[in-house]
Automatic annotation (TrEMBL):
<protein>
    <recommendedName>
        <fullName>dTDP-glucose 4,6-dehydratase</fullName>
        <ecNumber>4.2.1.46</ecNumber>
    </recommendedName>
</protein>
<dbReference type="GO" id="GO:0008460">
    <property type="term" value="F:dTDP-glucose 4,6-dehydratase activity"/>
</dbReference>
<dbReference type="InterPro" id="IPR005888">
    <property type="entry name" value="dTDP_Gluc_deHydtase"/>
</dbReference>
<keyword id="KW-0456">Lyase</keyword>
<dbReference type="InterPro" id="IPR036291">
    <property type="entry name" value="NAD(P)-bd_dom_sf"/>
</dbReference>
<dbReference type="Pfam" id="PF16363">
    <property type="entry name" value="GDP_Man_Dehyd"/>
</dbReference>
<feature type="domain" description="NAD(P)-binding">
    <location>
        <begin position="5"/>
        <end position="324"/>
    </location>
</feature>
<dbReference type="GO" id="GO:0009225">
    <property type="term" value="P:nucleotide-sugar metabolic process"/>
</dbReference>
<keyword id="KW-0520">NAD</keyword>
<comment type="similarity">
    <text>Belongs to the NAD(P)-dependent epimerase/dehydratase family. dTDP-glucose dehydratase subfamily.</text>
</comment>
<dbReference type="InterPro" id="IPR016040">
    <property type="entry name" value="NAD(P)-bd_dom"/>
</dbReference>
């Protein structure tokens, strides 16, 4: 019997991880801790919220006393830490929010785990785990060639990636200094169901549907490596259960696309789904002033994860994107509740 704390489980990736663990491991108790910021939405977990091995706790990882008390009360065996401020544009407007949640919040969790588990340096802890979920953006940017490996030096450029890099360093430091049993993974861009519609793909799906402009930064030449979110959740499952303490794994789809090509493909798929003439949705593409400090290219080498732990992505991008479009078209209410703000009023009142 294991009790696992998953932070940020009401967010995009976190909700997929919570669903996978609750359904796949009925013997585990999964506690989902989430502040329910604008990005947290418990509607993402409607299908599992009544399960006996699932519990939701509303709370802020920045509140050190609350976090420490929660660890002492619940006696967690493991943590999978996903809670974060995650949108680069918001980090440019409001960097301090990112320092608070991504850095201070992470250190609060590390301290609470250290206080509860009492690790000793040089003594391997095999029955506890602190798993920190991070991003490939900590590695900075690439030119046309090369890929990020686990050995690539950190070189973050946005306040978001700087805060995630800082949190990664703290997690490693707690492993090296106190013997905390830590693991980190750095993943490329995710897409799929429940993606918050401020991010490129869901924003464009919503705008194509509503015949609104599709804002593309610069000339749309920035390259990202896209991974279907359920493949990321599967990777987290494998790493959580099989990685050695203090190890790091890169997670990615070997699937590089320029932003403009992603949106052209999306327009083509949506033309078909909406019964529009091919090329009609692409007329909505509008180029806007580039994001400050915009990284040119990310590409993840996930060979280590594939060779050592046997994980590989299950979907081709075209198939994953079509599944994503289908999901958004079939779940209009979910999207409308977000764009109208209704999702926040409903759940915030329930958990005041
Ligand atoms: N989205 C991606 O493509 C991607 C890629 C690689 C890594 N990541 C990492 O994966 C994690 C999850 O990303 P996501 O896209 O699902 O993010 P998200 O923004 O969709 O969800 C974040 C969740 O964290 C919660 N949260 C925020 N601040 C909190 C706080 N102070 N206390 C408690 N909960 C808080 C939010 O309510 C939300 O539910 C993040 O750590 C992110 O850096 C994301």
């Amino acid at each position: 019997m294991k009790k696992i704390l998953i932070t940020g489980g009401a967010g995009f990736i976190g909700s997929h991880v919570v669903r996978l663990f609750v359904n796949k491991y009925p013997d585990y108790t999964i506690v989902n801790l989430d502040k329910l910021t604008y990005a947290g939405n418990l509607a993402n977990l409607k299908d599992i919220e009544q399960k006996a091995n699932y519990k939701f706790v509303k709370g802020d990882i920045v509140d050190a006393v609350f976090i420490n008390d929660l660890f002492q009360t619940e006696q967690f065996d493991a943590v999978i830490h996903l809670a974060a401020e995650s949108h680069v544009d918001r980090s440019i407007t409001n960097p301090l929010d990112f320092v608070m949640t991504n850095v201070i919040g992470t250190v609060n969790l590390l301290n609470a785990a250290k206080n509860l588990w009492k690790p000793e340096l040089g003594k391997e802890m095999t029955d506890k785990r602190f798993y920190h979920v991070s991003t490939d953006e900590v590695y900075g940017t690439l030119n046309e060639t090369g890929m990020f490996t686990e050995e690539t030096a950190y070189d973050p450029h946005s306040p978001y990636s700087a805060s995630k890099a800082s949190s990664d360093h703290f997690v490693r430091a707690y492993g090296d200094t106190y013997g905390l049993p830590i693991v980190i993974s750095n993943c490329s861009n995710n897409y799929g169901p429940f993606h918050f519609p401020e991010k490129l793909i869901p924003l464009c799906i919503n705008n194509i549907k509503n015949n609104k402009p599709l804002p593309i930064y610069g000339k749309g030449e920035n390259i990202r490596d896209w991974l279907f979110v359920e493949d990321h959740a599967r990777a987290i499952d494998v790493i959580f259960h099989s990685a050695k303490n203090s190890s790091t794994y890169n997670v990615g789809g070997h699937n590089e696309w320029t932003n403009i090509d992603v949106i052209r493909l999306l327009c083509k798929i949506m033309d078909g789904k909406l019964g529009r003439e091919e090329g009609e949705s692409a007329k909505l593409i509008t180029f806007v002033k580039d994001r400050a400090g915009h990284d040119l290219r990310y590409a993840i080498d996930s060979t280590k994860l594939q060779n050592e732990l046997g994980w590989k992505p299950s979907l081709q991008f075209e198939e994953g994107l079509e599944r994503t479009v289908d999901w958004f078209l079939e779940n209009e209410e979910w999207l409308e509740n977000i764009t109208s703000g209704a999702y926040q009023e409903y759940y915030q009142h329930q958990y005041l």
